[in-house]
């Protein structure tokens, strides 16, 4: 036993980490690769559907299988890392993700593709939380802001550039390359991880199967409900009612279990850390705003503004540039400015960008789309880094594995809920607005259209007016969604007052935290 203990790797000393820059580069390559896959495949679905012989409804399982699998496995990453070693689990996750990405690229039928995507989600689930955990552990607390700036750049840029890159690869080469692109990135990440990632201690800890099963049922049912709700007309469908009941029951059983079990799957004590609890709430809100706005813009620009896919990607890309610039700047500002102030500034920028988006009209050019995107990039970049730093600033290191897993999970669930809410509001409002606009059509409108185009029949004139009414109804509905997200963003600002300032900022940034190795 003593001999085995001697062979256990020591904890990570954040003040003495060899090849820190190479470790961070390897981690970020893996993160970008995984996060890209949340959006890159979306634009390839029509081509994929034709090649795989799928219907409009069944092709969506390519996205659903990945999302649900990743959501269920994400909370498990902390336990796996503690039990088998964080380095080992991270490398298995990256290798598995690359292998199944390659298999997705050669898939020959929809059933096979869904299985490969499901496995891709299983392996990819651990990449982001474990990478964040490593980034926090290999950097001293006073440098966590800079580390989270680099980490946040990958998290933010992935979903933003995904549709653009996916559209380019699909149009210029083939849809299969949206999966093959992961192979070179993954190979470099695997090599860097194998050579430079430090080992962490392993713990012989039991597995709370009942607690994990309850959480898995809850998360899986919730994700299924959110993903399929719009297709099934929400609670008009029996399936959605069943999934909602399973989600509520699962979360209730899980909550009761972790509060009463001796060794629960997640230690409830970690939620007593106020910064972690508020950080999870904030990242949930950020998830709603980030992917919900990204989900609305492409169809709006395509259907109402008549932009082709590549133009849509180019118009949206400045959002990523704004986020990157702000994250690099924030990485330096966190040393001298209260992180809570930066959060307020970021949320204000984001709310202002959504206010600009609520003034969009089909007659305008791309100027304000680009400007609002850059401002939103500034805002989200200003929020993500301080929140990622504050959430773990006061958390005991032994809880970081589970904390980063929950951080990633809440961001993804927030994204799913945000997309579902804005999509449902959009669909409902289009129907309501269209009905109101059409009700205003009268013989004078009809005559005006017919006189404006000589020889136009009454039926043709009605079609023209109906198309105009549909476009206007859709534009009003998009604007209403942007206003809704603006109010959600503003409502999050008062929560900043519940966050605690990190100790190293209280001491002016000059005090070094204790140099004891980080153990798990």
TrEMBL record:
Q: Does the keyword Iron apply?
A: no
List the keywords (alphabetical): Cell membrane, Membrane, Transmembrane, Transmembrane helix, Transport
Q: Which domain of life is it from?
A: Bacteria
Location of this chain's protein in the cell? Cell membrane
**Transmembrane residue ranges:** 21-41, 61-82, 89-108, 114-135, 147-165, 177-197, 209-226, 240-259, 280-301, 307-330, 337-356, 368-393, 405-426, 482-499
A Pfam family in this protein? MFS_1
By its UniProt entry, which Gene3D superfamilies does this protein fall under? MFS general substrate transporter like domains (1.20.1250.20)
Membrane topology, as annotated: Multi-pass membrane protein
Where do the Major facilitator superfamily (MFS) profile domain residues begin and end? 23-504
Tell me the SUPFAM superfamilies matching this sequence.
MFS general substrate transporter (SSF103473)
rRNA-binding among the record's keywords? no
| Protein family according to the UniProt entry | Belongs to the major facilitator superfamily. EmrB family.
Report the NCBIfam families cross-referenced here. efflux_EmrB
The name this protein goes by in its record: EmrB/QacA family drug resistance transporter
């Amino acid at each position: 036993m003593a001999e085995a203990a001697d062979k256990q790797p020591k904890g990570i000393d954040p003040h003495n980490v060899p090849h820190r820059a190479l470790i961070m580069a390897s981690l970020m390559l893996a993160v970008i690769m995984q996060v890209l896959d949340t959006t890159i495949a979306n634009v390839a679905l029509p081509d994929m559907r034709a090649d795989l012989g799928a219907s409009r409804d069944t092709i969506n399982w390519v996205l659903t299988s990945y999302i649900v699998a990743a959501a269920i496995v994400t909370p498990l990453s902390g336990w796996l890392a503690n039990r088998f070693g964080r380095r080992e689990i991270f490398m298995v996750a990256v290798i598995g993700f690359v292998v199944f990405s390659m298999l997705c690229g050669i898939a020959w039928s929809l059933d096979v593709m869904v299985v490969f995507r499901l496995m891709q989600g299983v392996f990819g689930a651990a990449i982001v939380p474990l990478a964040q955990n490593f980034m926090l552990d290999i950097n001293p607390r006073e440098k966590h802001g800079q580390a989270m700036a680099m980490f946040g750049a990958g998290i933010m840029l992935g979903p933003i550039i995904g549709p653009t890159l996916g559209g380019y690869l699909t149009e210029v080469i083939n849809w299969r390359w949206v999966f093959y692109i992961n192979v070179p990135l993954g190979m470099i990440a695997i090599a860097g991880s194998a050579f430079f990632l430090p080992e962490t201690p392993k713990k012989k800890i039991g597995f709370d199967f009942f607690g994990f099963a309850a959480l898995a049922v809850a998360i899986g049912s919730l994700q299924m409900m959110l993903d399929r709700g719009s297709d099934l007309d929400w609670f008009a469908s029996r399936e959605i009612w069943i999934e909602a009941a399973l989600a509520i029951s699962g979360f209730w059983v899980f909550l009761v279990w972790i509060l009463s079990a001796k060794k629960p799957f997640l230690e409830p004590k970690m939620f007593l850390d106020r910064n972690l609890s508020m950080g999870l709430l904030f990242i949930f809100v950020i998830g709603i705003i980030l992917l919900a706005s990204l989900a609305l813009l492409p169809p709006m620009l395509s259907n109402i503004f008549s932009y082709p896919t590549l133009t849509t990607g180019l118009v949206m890309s400045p959002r990523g540039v704004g986020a990157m610039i702000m994250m690099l700047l924030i990485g330096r500002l966190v040393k001298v400015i209260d992180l809570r102030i930066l959060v307020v500034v970021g949320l204000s920028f984001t709310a202002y960008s959504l206010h600009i988006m609520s003034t969009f009209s089909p007659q305008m050019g791309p100027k304000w789309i680009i400007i609002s995107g850059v401002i939103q990039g500034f805002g989200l970049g200003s929020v993500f880094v301080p929140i990622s730093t504050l959430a773990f600033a006061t958390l005991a290191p032994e809880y970081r594995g589970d904390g980063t897993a929950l951080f990633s999970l809440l961001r993804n669930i927030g994204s799913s809920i945000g997309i579902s809410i804005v999509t449902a509001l959009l669909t409902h409002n289009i129907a309501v607005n269209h009905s109101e606009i059409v009700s205003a059509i009268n013989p004078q409108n009809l005559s005006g259209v017919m006189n404006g185009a000589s020889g136009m029949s009454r039926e043709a004139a009605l079609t023209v007016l109906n198309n105009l009414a549909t476009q206007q109804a859709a534009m009003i509905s998009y604007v209403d969604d942007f206003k809704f997200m603006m109010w959600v963003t503003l409502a999050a600002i008062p929560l900043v007052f519940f966050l605690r300032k990190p100790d190293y900022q209280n001491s002016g940034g000059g005090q070094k935290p204790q140099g004891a190795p980080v153990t798990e």
